[in-house]
Write a structure and sequence with these properties.
The chain is of the alpha+beta class. Helix content is 32%, strand content 21%.
């Protein structure tokens, strides 16, 4: 077990990290291709406080622990570290206590490789281009000089939100303390706004980061997907996702709930 400042039960303890009892990868019986490490990160001792209800300092500590665990796994030689937060059963959470997960893999997942190649081939910062497009269409949710949150034009589902540190590099594990703090607070506020607008929906938070040694043009970002729609037969048969809420309308509602 690993913890943030303080030990469990002592003053100052908030974040707790421990091995997943049912890991996606790793464990004593892992075969080739399934080795790695899977950790659960309890956000706080409070069983009912999701990320959107954390204080400024608590949110920053959670994201700092996630960054530091990502860095530790990368230094240990893992090929990719996936950071995510599933909140609610409809988002895949198997336990009720709010928690995040860190999954360290010994291979580069296909989607990560494709995203890395796309950045390299385009030769531009696709995250900042997406942000600029959203701001130009009045789809910004929280737009500051250092950190921003926006509803992308190509939202695959209602109320999808992306967040990024404007000066972020290719790897989440290399984020500065200021970037971690900024993303943590904006993520906390975004999730709180989603809760007010949608009635505390289940949601997924996914950190997108490049594979080790990736082109420096890659820009790590965070995706928030409320689980308020269902992928049905048309989507399954065609791969075409249907979004019933215009991003400009989603952004307006979220701004009003901040």
């Amino acid at each position: 077990m690993r913890t943030g400042p303080g030990e469990p039960g002592e003053p100052g303890w908030r974040v707790r990290v421990f091995p997943n009892l049912y890991p996606v990868v790793g464990g004593p019986d892992a075969i080739a291709g399934a080795t790695g490490e899977h950790e659960v990160v309890a956000l706080s001792p409070d069983h009912d406080r999701a990320f959107g209800a954390l204080t400024h300092d608590e949110a920053a500590e959670v994201l700092t622990v996630l960054r530091d665990r990502s860095q530790a796994h990368k230094l240990a030689g893992r090929q990719h570290v996936q950071v995510l937060l599933n909140q609610g059963r409809d988002a895949g959470a198997s336990i009720a206590h709010p928690h995040a997960q860190v999954i360290a893999l010994d291979f580069v997942p296909p989607a990560v490789g494709v995203a890395t190649e796309r950045f390299a081939e385009d030769g531009a910062d696709l995250v900042l281009a997406d942000l600029a497009d959203a701001v130009g269409r009045d789809q910004g949710v929280i737009v500051g000089d250092e950190v921003a949150a926006w509803c992308p034009t190509g939202s695959a589902s209602p109320f999808e939100v992306r967040l990024a540190a404007v000066g972020g590099g290719p790897h989440f594990d290399e984020a500065t303390a200021a970037q971690v703090l900024g993303i943590a607070v904006v993520l906390r506020d975004t999730l709180a706004a989603l809760g007010r607008v949608l009635g505390d929906p289940a949601y997924n938070v996914v950190v997108h980061t490049a594979e080790p040694g990736a082109d420096v043009r890659f820009h790590w970002w965070v995706a928030v997907t409320p689980r308020v729609s269902v992928v049905a037969g048309f989507e399954m048969g065609t791969g075409v996702l249907v979004n019933t809420v215009e991003p400009i309308d989603a952004a307006e509602q979220l701004r009003g709930a901040l």
